[in-house]
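From the shared-data thread, chain only:
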Amino acid sequence: MFWRVAISLVGAALILWALSDAALRLFGAQAPAVVHVRRVGGADVSRPPDAQYQWSVDYTFYVNGRLYQGHEAARGSAVAVGHSDTVRYFPFFPQIHSLSSDEPAVLGFFVSAGLGVLLVAAMNPGRKKTRAAAKAGRSAISPGLRASGGKPATMAYIMTHAEDYDDSLEEYYQNGWNVDDPSWQCRCGMWNEGRYCAACGLPAGASKEESEHGKDH
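Structure, as tokens:
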């Protein structure tokens, strides 16, 4: 349970981050930034020469006279790293900002959003099944509105026809079909609607001894 919730939250966070990042790049306001870069760590020779080193990119900018700070990581060569000198931010909430290129990162958006959707869907498979099961339960009892006059399902009908017993009983009581239901259970265990038991032929209200006698015959 804990891991399902935790992974679902991670997936939701990825989706929100992707949507926020896309909205920021498409609709965010712009401001000039003061950028400071610093190379960290050693070279990763498995990468191309212009991306072998990790760089720390720190920046500051002002909105309505208030100073905001940000930090990003980027890969570059041994002597330089590419970066933008313009920051994008939400005018209504400048705390959300990004020092990025003007063009939306389409691939990054779909990767992050897709991964988020996959995590949420993988951790919550029961919801769709639950809805399907509920629908199946309704369809199992819906024949209770039978062709014989379109009357509501009776207890006798449910006990002899419904496959999903619990869901059928829940719907039976929720719809008030128990009111004036002529169903009765014979001592032999058979549920009936008529005056006589369809299994042993005894009338409604017959005693256990009469039921046993009826079975012997």
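Residues 2-123 form one domain.
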